[in-house]
Structures are given as structure tokens and as C-alpha cells.
Design brief:
There is one protein chain. This protein has one domain: Up-down Bundle (Growth Hormone, Chain: A), CATH 1.20.1250. The chain is globular. The protein is mainly alpha-helical. It is built from 13 helices and no strands.
Length: 321
């Protein structure tokens, strides 16, 4: 985790200092994204080593609030700082936060590396395949993971459609349209705060699938919203469901996968989510040309609700088995 933070500081610092051409810029952004994804898998894996089993839901909620919920404050902070700092100055400040982060990580108890079992695969490809196998062979994990991937493949289109819904369909300006994106962040923050205080209600797999249905319904209802205020409220609803998905899924992996494979399980799960989101973005543009923004959001939400229903049946069968 410390190495990932320092690597991100170097990548963002290079962008701030050099102002590189586009090709180099894309490479630095890609490197920073890889490091961020690695940090995410490592940190979620480490949570199970740092807290008691009964506290996993609350710990995951606190971590999720810092990871996703506080993203609501990021754009607001940039808006306040832009008159004082230029773009490079803001990027330099961002890089500084990644230098300070290891000072906080250094306060953690020492985390022992997992002992590799005899005959365990070596090499990146084989170890990645081992992470995929552990997700596939555990029936409950497989049901939740597949449901999550399909739901993301549908719902990722909302990032493409929301701006057109706000500006073209609901006739809102750029500032008001940005509220639609802030709505899901606000819902995430509220959901994480409630989960951190009271814990999750039910088994992790059930919580995750309920969150998938909840968040997907938020997109569907956003597409049907008559005015901007209702659309904003539905995006807040969507964000609340996403907090359930995150906490339920993370807790399920932490309790179901052994220490030596937990990091790889998280890496493969989050990597799959990233690929599903990328496919959804790619499909969202052409679909937007065929349908209205409302139609795209309704299709996205309805597809996510259907995926959640199938995942719920699979979870029920897996628990019964």
C-alpha cells in the first residue's frame, strides 16, 4: 500500500511538473490507475487482518466512505482552489496527499505476508488464474460476482446518459446537471455513514444483491423523473444502494477466501468490474444515438434489476446447498 501511494505521487507529480504531451499523459494516468486498483485490493484484503470478524461491515463502510463517499468533496474543493491555484498547482497538491498517506499507513500494526502454500502457482498469469478460480468455485461468491458484473455492464451507461438527460431533456444548465453526478456521491456518503454506525442488515451476499437491485432501480427511476429535483433524489437513492453493494461484497470476500488468496480475489473482482464498466461506456454512446437519455437510463436500470433478480435466485440456491 505504501509503494502504491508513493507511485501515485510520482505519476501525478510528473503530470504537474512536466505538463507532458497527450500520449505520455495517458501513460501516466494509466499507471496511476493501476496503482490505485492495486491499493484498493490490498487495503480491502488487509481489513480482515486488522479488525474482528464482527466489525467487518462497519470497517468496510468507513473505508468506503473515505474511498468513494468523500469524492463529493473533491470537485467542490477544486472549485474553491482554482481561483487561488492554477491547474498544475492543484495537481501538485493532489500529489502531496499521496506523500502524506504513507505516514498514516505507517501507524498500522505490522501485517505479515501470506505464506504461499506448497505447490502454489508462480508467475503473474497463473496467480491471477488462481484468483479467478477461487471466485468461481465458491458458489455464493460466484453468484454475487456474476450479478455484480452484469449489473455494472448495464448501469455504467448512466455516466454517459446523465449529462444529456440534464442538459437536453430536463433543460438544466451545466451547473445544475452536475448535481445529478453529485447525487450518487451524496447517497454513497449517507449510506456508508448509516452502515458504519449500525452495521449491515443481513448476510453479506443478501446485502450485496439487495444493493444491486436498489441502485439499479435508482437509475430506472431517474430515467422516468419528470424534473431535475426528482432525478437528483433518485441518484441519491442509487448511491445508497451502491454503498450496500460495496460493503456486502467486500465482507463476503473477506469471510469466504483464505488469507493467501484474498488479495487476488479482490483484484480479479475489481478488475472484472472495471472491464464491465468499460464495456458499458462503449455501448452507451451508440445506444444513446438510438434511444433518448431517458431510454438509456431505463434500459440500464431494468437490466440491472433483472440481473439482481437472477443473482438473488443463485444466492438462495447456493445458501441452500
Amino acid at each position: 500500500m505504501v509503494a502504491c501511494e508513493l507511485g501515485q505521487a510520482l505519476a501525478i507529480g510528473a503530470i504537474a511538473l512536466l505538463g507532458p504531451p497527450l500520449v505520455v499523459l495517458l501513460g501516466l494516468v494509466a499507471a496511476q490507475s493501476v496503482l490505485a486498483a492495486t491499493f484498493q485490493a490490498a487495503s480491502r484484503s488487509a481489513v480482515a487482518e486488522l479488525v474482528d470478524d464482527a466489525d467487518l461491515e462497519g470497517a468496510n463502510a468507513v473505508l468506503g466512505a473515505g474511498t468513494y463517499g468523500l469524492e463529493v468533496a473533491g470537485p467542490l474543493l477544486v472549485a474553491l482552489l482554482l481561483p487561488v491555484l492554477d491547474l498544475r498547482g492543484i495537481l501538485a497538491l493532489d500529489a502531496l496527499t499521496f506523500v502524506l498517506s504513507p505516514l498514516l499507513l505507517a501507524r498500522l500494526p505490522r501485517l505479515r505476508p501470506a505464506v504461499r502454500a506448497a505447490g502454489a502457482p508462480s508467475g503473474l498469469a497463473r496467480q491471477a488464474a488462481a484468483g479467478v478460480r477461487v471466485l468461481w468455485r465458491h458458489r455464493l461468491l460466484r453468484a454475487v460476482a456474476l450479478g455484480l458484473l452484469v449489473a455494472v455492464a448495464f448501469n455504467g451507461m448512466d455516466d454517459v446518459a446523465l449529462v444529456f438527460l440534464g442538459r437536453d431533456t430536463l433543460r438544466a444548465g451545466d451547473a445544475l446537471t452536475s448535481l445529478l453526478y453529485a447525487g450518487s456521491g451524496l447517497g454513497l456518503l449517507l449510506g456508508y455513514a448509516l452502515l458504519a454506525r449500525r452495521g449491515a442488515w443481513g448476510a453479506p451476499a443478501a446485502v450485496a444483491v439487495a444493493g444491486l437491485a436498489w441502485s439499479s432501480a435508482g437509475n430506472l427511476l431517474t430515467g422516468l423523473a419528470p424534473v431535475l429535483g426528482v432525478a437528483f433524489a433518485m441518484q441519491v437513492l442509487r448511491g445508497g444502494g451502491l454503498s450496500l453493494v460495496d460493503v456486502g461484497t467486500a465482507t463476503l470476500v473477506q469471510r469466504s477466501v483464505g488469507r493467501e488468496l484474498r488479495g487476488r480475489a479482490f483484484a480479479n473482482l475489481y478488475g472484472g468490474v472495471g472491464l464491465a464498466a468499460a464495456a458499458s461506456y462503449a455501448a452507451g454512446g451508440p445506444l444513446l444515438e438510438l434511444l433518448s437519455p431517458r431510454g438509456v437510463l431505463v434500459v440500464a436500470g431494468a437490466g440491472g434489476v433483472a440481473a439482481s433478480a437472477v443473482a438473488a435466485l443463485a444466492v438462495r440456491r447456493a445458501r441452500g446447498a
